[in-house]
Amino acid sequence: MKTTAAVMRAHNQPLSIETIDVDPPKAGELLLRMAAAGICGSDRHVLEGHFPGAVPTVGGHEGAGVVEAVGEGVQGFAVGDHVLQTFVGPCGVCASCRRGQRTFCTLRWTTDGTLPDGTFRMHAADGSPIGTLLGLGSFSAHTVSPARNCVVVPPDVDLACAALVSCGVSTGVGAMVNVARTQIGDDVAILGAGGVGAAAIMGAVIAGAGRIIAIDVHDTKEGPARSFGATHFLNARTQNVAEAISQITEGRGVDRIVLTLDRIFPEHYKLAIEALAPGGVAVQVGSTDHGMDHLPVSPNAFASRQVSFTGTVYGGMNPEADARRWLELHRRGALPVEKLITREYEIGDINKAFDDLAAGRNIRGLVRFE
After folding, report:
1. 17, 145, 165: which is closest to 71 by C-alpha?
2. What CATH architecture applies to the domain 2-152+336-368?
3. Phi, psi at residue 4, to the nearest 5°?
């Protein structure tokens, strides 16, 4: 079938809007009619060549849509089901999956643009293959994904909200709830108030945190951050963040700090560790500055106050189970995902969406297909 997609033909170049051919799903796969796809910082890293991504390829990994065809052997899905995509597709049988660590499945993704069987489902007008990023290809009006990368969504959930749950919400909320293990009354800080950081703020509210300190370099992020539940906002360009955190917490520091910056530099690690209260936990979510290969912090900083540092890929060990948890909280009104959507774009305006992402104009931009 023919469909419209945003194709990455080269790194650091605008995406090409093209009519492409999409093959029917093979065994274990689903054909999806996409409804929405979030514009995530990780997509930008792929475009810039910092994350693995074949060329040419259709990017996008934060998507949701409707099942239009079911491949051989697929169970648990039917034509017409609403689904979200997860960028991790657990096999269910490897050692990590058997231990419940499904995010770290040994077969969780492919980075060469092929589907798990090593072949392509997308093709250009001349018949040449086009890759499907992580088996998802959310920036196409139709795509084929492995069924193990999809989660059925209740039909009353807006698929735009489901798309955000598929990555940014699960990562941010999960980082605060599952990984940092925030407790009732904890003081927390979120370094970077974009889409994932905003979700981390919501996660802090769900966990019952006390003071919630959002930190960013754009004053435009203050209003949204407070609407998500932040009790304080600091502008890192104009304020001494370490001193401000100390003042807010009466000199004790925060119990949890989550680093959700698009790119984390050495000074951010120093700030995170110094800002922790005794026994506190720092969680890395964003990517490090390119070429950085060690923590620029003395081991004594950890031992002297019994603080710890960890990281997360997806905000937890089980993407499907967490997606269902966050969707249910959203349905109950406890996780207002819709507030994260700053602006919607048509697929033809996707390059504008990436420009807005780079400029920090959005909490989350979203491509709406229907």
Report:
1. 145
2. Alpha-Beta Complex (3.90)
3. -105, 135
pLDDT of residue 143: 98
Neighbours of 61 (CB within 10 A): 25
Helix (H) or strand (E) holding 82, with range, is strand 82-85
Question: Which pTM was predicted?
Answer: 0.95
Q: What is the pLDDT of residue 267?
A: 94
Instruction: Note the pLDDT tens digit of each residue in 219-256.
Output: 999 999 999 999 999 999 999 999 999 999 999 999 99
Indicate the residue type of 365: G
DSSP letter for each residue of 83-136: EEE-S----SSSHHHHTT-GGG-TTS--SSS--TTS--SEE-TTS-EEEEGGGT
| CA distance to 13, 251, 283, 310, per residue, from 277 (Å) | 44, 9, 14, 16
The answer on pLDDT for 45 being more than 90 is no
Q: What's the rounded Cα separation, in Å, for the pair 136 and 109?
A: 10
Cβ neighbors of 155 (< 8 A, separation 6 or more) are: 82
- Whether 34 contacts 142, CB under 8 Å: yes
Secondary structure (3-state) at 92: coil
Q: pLDDT digit string (tens) for 72-129?
A: 999 999 999 999 999 999 999 999 999 999 999 998 888 899 999 999 999 999 999 9
Class of domain 172-311: alpha beta
Alpha-carbon distance of 92 to 13, in angstroms, equals 37
Domain locations in the chain?
A: 2-152+336-368, 172-311
Q: Taking Cα atoms as reference points, which of 254, 253, 283, 248 lies closest to residue 268?
A: 283
Q: How confident is the model at residue 52 (pLDDT cuts 50, 70, 90)?
A: confident
